[in-house]
């Protein structure tokens, strides 16, 4: 049977594509459902399925596919280096209602790339050649790749892009930093623009797309088919709707602190199920608030007090003081300069 490499048709025809970046321990079924309430991206991606000799399909991640009610296509992302097992898991996933298989070649977490998976693969173009060749010949449908512009530098970049073309990859999501840069330093949009010109498939530009305005600038400067957004979607779940509005010439919706408090409450409900201990629930909410707080107030006192909270009562008391004292005040569309999320929250987050 001939392999189909066509992308599922986006649900916003005529507009640039948007995608929610896969973020481990963040973009689960519950978080996707929350995002969908504020305006879904065109595409979702699962957290990565870890692939090795004894791996199966993670049931919790699989729920993002089998219980997807967002109305948007979802890609199943896989990470690993064992070619027979990557093929095996990709074939198993192909029986589920997915938009395609996405290979992670960009995760910058040291504990990941040291195993020669994720971003670690970018050191070995010939291994990438073998993996893509076997996946392309073994599965029907869409095969996409998420990667960075290199491991330590871009010396091998064009060689890898040539393999993207050789195996008819359907979509390339490209973060404009190296693996060793992590989430620090400038995003190299010129190199993304170079990839747009070199590869035959659509490219999603990824990295520091923080608002509808910055998305428009990135699209203009790179020529990319769309943008993939990670951490900024945690901070501002309205961002995909705002991008569509801005690119259509409409007025961008105004988000108030009161609406942000409602969003936080929705996130709270995603962490309160089962028998999860309070400390774990607080830590999960702090992870979300670490990004949301970048646009709450410019001095950093909200972030500081939130991080010092020990209980849910303390944590949500801080939220109420800063967000409900003046609920009609506008939430900043961009993060305030100088405020940063804790590095520990970035260890496996894509953006």
TrEMBL record:
Signal sequence region: none
Role, per record: Catalyzes the synthesis of 5,6-dihydrouridine (D), a modified base found in the D-loop of most tRNAs, via the reduction of the C5-C6 double bond in target uridines.
Organism phylogeny: Bacteria, Bacillati, Cyanobacteriota, Cyanophyceae, Nostocales
Transmembrane annotation, as ranges: none
Pfam families for this protein: Dus
Tree of life domain: Bacteria
Annotated PANTHER family: TRNA-DIHYDROURIDINE(47) SYNTHASE [NAD(P)(+)]-LIKE (PTHR45846:SF1)
Keyword tRNA processing appears in the UniProt entry: yes
Name of the protein described by the UniProt record: tRNA-dihydrouridine synthase
Family as reported in the entry's similarity comment: Belongs to the dus family.
Keywords, ordered alphabetically: Flavoprotein, FMN, Nucleotide-binding, Oxidoreductase, tRNA processing
Binding of FMN, residues: 77, 146, 175, 230-231
Cofactor section: FMN
Domain DUS-like FMN-binding: 20-247
EC numbers: 1.3.1.-
Source organism: Aetokthonos hydrillicola Thurmond2011
MF terms in GO: flavin adenine dinucleotide binding; RNA binding; tRNA dihydrouridine synthase activity
């Amino acid at each position: 049977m001939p392999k189909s490499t066509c992308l599922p048709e986006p649900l916003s025809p005529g507009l640039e594509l948007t995608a929610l970046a896969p973020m481990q321990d963040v973009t689960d079924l519950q978080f996707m459902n929350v995002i969908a309430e504020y305006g879904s991206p065109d595409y979702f991606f699962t957290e990565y399925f870890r692939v090795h000799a004894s791996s199966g399909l993670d049931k919790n991640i699989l729920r993002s596919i089998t219980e997807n009610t967002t109305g948007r296509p979802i890609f199943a992302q896989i990470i690993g280096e064992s070619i027979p097992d990557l093929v095996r898991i990709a074939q198993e996933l192909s029986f589920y209602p997915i938009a395609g298989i996405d290979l992670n070649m960009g995760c910058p977490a040291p504990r990941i790339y040291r195993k020669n998976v994720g971003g670690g693969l970018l050191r070995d173009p010939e291994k990438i050649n073998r993996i893509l060749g076997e996946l392309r010949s073994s599965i029907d449908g869409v095969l996409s790749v998420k990667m960075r512009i290199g491991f330590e530098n871009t010396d091998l970049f064009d060689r890898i892009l040539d393999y993207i073309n050789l195996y008819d990859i359907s979509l390339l999501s490209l973060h404009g930093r190296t693996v060793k840069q992590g989430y620090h330093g400038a995003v190299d949009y010129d190199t993304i623009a170079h990839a747009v010109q070199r590869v035959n498939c659509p490219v999603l530009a990824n990295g520091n797309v923080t608002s509808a305005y910055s998305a428009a600038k990135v699209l203009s400067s790179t020529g990319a088919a769309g943008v993939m957004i990670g951490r900024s979607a945690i901070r501002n779940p309205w961002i995909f709707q705002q991008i569509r509005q801005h690119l259509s010439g409409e007025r961008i919706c105004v988000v108030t602190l009161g609406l942000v408090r409602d969003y936080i409450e929705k996130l709270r409900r995603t962490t309160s199920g089962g028998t999860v201990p309070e400390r774990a629930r607080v830590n999960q909410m702090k992870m979300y608030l670490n990004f949301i707080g970048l646009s709450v107030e410019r001095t950093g006192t909200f972030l500081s007090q939130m991080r010092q909270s020990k209980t849910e009562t303390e944590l949500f008391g801080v939220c109420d003081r800063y967000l409900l004292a003046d609920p009609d005040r506008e939430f900043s569309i961009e993060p305030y300069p100088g405020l940063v999320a804790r590095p520990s929250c970035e260890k496996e987050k894509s953006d």
